[in-house]
Amino acid sequence: MSSEIQQGTAAKNAPQAIDVGRLEKELAASWQSAGGAEESGVTRVCVLNLIIYATREEDRAQRDELLDVVTAHTPARALVLVADREATEAKLEAYVSPLCQEESRGGAKRVCGEQVTIEASGASVETAASALEPLVVPDVPVFLWWKDIPHGEDKLFNRLVELSDRVVIDSLVFDQPHEDMQQLARIIGTHRQYLLASDLNWGRLTSWRNLVASFWDVADYRPHLDALDDVLIEYDPPDAAPDEIAAQALLLIGWMAAELKWQPTGELVREGKSARWVLQAGEGRKINVEFRPAEDRHGCDGLIATLTLKTAATDAEFYVGVNEEWTKLETSAKIGDARSVGRVVSYEAKSEGERLSRELSMLSRDEVYERAVASIARLLEVLQKS
Amino acid sequence: MRAGVRLERTAEPCVVVIFGATGDLTKRKLVPALYRLVQERLVPAEFAIVGAARTELSSEEFRANMKEAIVQFSEAKSVDEEVWESFAQGLHYQKVDIGTSEDYVKLAELLERIDGERGTQGNRVFYLSTAPSLYAEAVKQLGQSGLAKPKEGQKGWVRVIIEKPFGTDLASAQALNRDIHQHLDESQIYRIDHYLGKETVQNLLVFRFANGIYEPLWNRQYIDHVQITNAETVGVEGRGGYYEKAGVVRDMLQNHVFQVLSLVAMEPPASLNSESVRDEKIKAMTSVRPFTPERIRAECVRGQYGAGSINGKQVPGYREEEGVAPDSATETFAMLTMYFDNWRWSGVPFYIRSGKRLAKRVTEIAIQFKDAPHKLFGSEMMEQMTPNQLIIRVQPDEGITMRVAAKVPGQVTRIRDVNMDFRYGASFGMQLAEAYERLLLDCILGDPTLYARTDMTERGWEIVMPILEEWAATKSEAPFPNYEAGTWGPQATHDLLEQAGRRWRRP
């Protein structure tokens, strides 16, 4: 094991390009040398395979940092595929390195996983999945973290999805949220038989959904749920698509529409930078949904700032919002002239690595997420047709 | 005297004669394996090797070639010069044309000379690493030249190792058996199947019969089904001409895979002597349900690879390979659903697949147990719904894995599969012997347990003949190519399991 590893965090050897077919032998050899180099030794652990698809432009140091975080929670075999699709030369290179936890616990052996990086360029990108597949450790789950916008026609994406038990994306990076969200719904629908999907952006909504749902845990508030007729979502518009509704805002309304059985009517009103959709509940009640760029919240590209739910019939208002520093979530509930009841809770500002680690602990199907995505796609489709 | 020297088995002095000594197998496997046996002191000093082939070569040239081969193909990628010098002294070459009687006279003279010089005591192993069509002729010539039996009045022994394929169908296998039995007793014949030399395959016997906990579960009461996967990533590698006549059923299934299958399905033998083990294996294979045309259509799948990618590289389809007909109907993939009609296995399907140009090189046996009888934990707690599995990995990375459900730590009950793993490399920290090392040593020691007996080779052919005949009769209907290189075979194999509510595991 290299001196870098003995020092702790940067548990990666200098890349050494090797033949793909010889990777396993290289790994075995690196473990044999690793065992002897550290006084307390290391334990090789692999609880899952993590395939990471990343583009050439992505910052390697950032990715390594993220893998350190993931390894601390989940020792894994990370199979990193770095793709350069624009290159004219077809090239495929691979190198291996151990991936160790920063500290050993109580003098015990340090737990290490391993990383195999495959750099593919040009035409080799399309065939890279066949280089990855033999490297997948059997009998442990395979997660694919697709660090890009997924496209159903992408052969590489489809091969990697077939290889994986769960696909993790981050809809926050969608540069055309409307089109990309519909695309995502099609992918989930097409591969539903074997595809389980996770979305880091959906994970960011967990606190929001929890707080919204908790309003209706209060028996006195419950009747107002069936009277909701006004929804306002304020968000920091994504720089890549300032004129489109941010993916996170779409997910939030998709979730509410799916769970509360709200249907699209096709009515869409644009007022400046805001957009207003009209949805309809089962009993014919109309719900105005307004998406509004938050004027005073910046620096959190594509994230929601506030959610306000109102009922005209019962004069109720339910509010969830993030503070200006994006550190706390505030809630309030007000019925008629009564005093507003509220609370402040911590906003989970987790790093990407922590969010990913959390997704890697999930293996069951997230039916609620799938329903939310399908619901958004339906809403967008009806709006496009109208 | 041998007490405490930690060598369980000691070999007698002998000469190993390799027919086909200039071929690939000799270079890649046989001589490196024999070198290791010498290096590991598993054969005595009174040991010699004679390479025999049609090519004119001096012993010196043969030694130089073999030294190069050991460096290139042995695990160590080097030779120990002192060990090599000693090994090379016993390494000889004799030009032998298989059909020429005079050559056997010269060979006999050389062997006699070696007996005198190295004390090999008239003990002989003849290894037939020639074209299969020459097996019968080689044995006939050995018989007629007097080499097939020890010299009169001598105590030595003669054994003949025969490489696969043993026949190309049932009739040819029976004919070959008849021919060689004219000159050799069954006890002299060692039909080699190198899969049986692999540690994990041998460990199957230990695993099943040295542990008290598995055998009670090893039956229809607890096992839902068995999957055996034998996957290669390579194509025909320039052997298109041979493969066109063979196909995967002849090349892999009826020999390697059936040997492994018989070890999984057999009853416990009364003892570990070779006849007891082989009796139980043939008994199990005798109970295999015959394949009818209806069963073949419904429960078997044939495939042929088209172009695709392996290890990141584009590869051509089978029909574009050298020596292969552009409209070839030869199968490069086969999947069979097999049943053993006996008390132990009644109703338990054994799904077997073997193919070329698949996604990964792997051979494994997966025993899938039945679900727990009562689902105490709801589906919301079960993150993975896989029933218990026992996976026996034959190659590469030999080992055994048991999958069991466990609670994920935390305040709520979430259940996930975890693996209890045993890996040879990690557990014993030693380099595993090559299969050929073990098998050659067994032959020298006179232990045929891991070699195929006459009845087993013929039974293998009996089982597959209806499939070969049905597929030959319907070759125009074969939808070839029907799988992309680098995948796990035709979609029909996945559909077939899915219809039964099962799925192939990803090895």
Describe the structure.
The complex is a heterodimer of chains A (about 375) and B (about 500). Chain A has helices at about 5, 25-35, 60-75, 125-130, 155-165, 175-190, 200-205, 205-215, 220-225, 245-260, 350-360, 365-385, and strands at about 40-45, 50-55, 75-85, 90-100, 110-120, 140-145, 165-170, 195-200, 230-235, 265-270, 275-280, 285-295, 305-310, 315-320, 330-335, 340-345. In chain A, the strands form 2 sheets. In chain A, strands 1, 2, 3, 4, 5, 6, 7 and 8 form an 8-stranded mixed sheet that branches. An 8-stranded mixed sheet of chain A has the order 10-11-12-9-13-14-15-16, covered by helices on one side. Residues about 1-20 of chain A have low confidence and may be disordered. With about 375 residues, chain A is of the alpha/beta class. The longest helix of chain A is centred in the C-terminal third of the chain and has 19 residues, at about 365-385. Helices cover about 35% and strands about 20% of the residues of chain B. In chain B, the strands form 4 sheets. In chain B, strands 8-12-13-7-14-15-16-17 form an 8-stranded mixed sheet. In chain B, strands 3-2-1-4-5-6 form a 6-stranded parallel sheet. In chain B, strands 9-18 form a two-stranded parallel sheet. With about 500 residues, chain B is α/β, with parallel strands linked by helices. In chain B, strand 1, helix 1 (about 25-40) and strand 2 (about 45-55) form a beta-alpha-beta unit. Chain B has helices at about 25-40, 60-75, 80-90, 100-120, 135-145, 170-180, 200-210, 240-265, 275-285, 295-300, 425-430, 435-445, 455-475, 490-500, and strands at about 15-20, 45-55, 90-95, 125-130, 160, 190, 225-230, 300-305, 305, 310, 315, 335-340, 350-355, 360-370, 390-395, 400-410, 415-425, 485. Chains A and B meet through helix 4 of A and strand 10 and strand 16 of B.
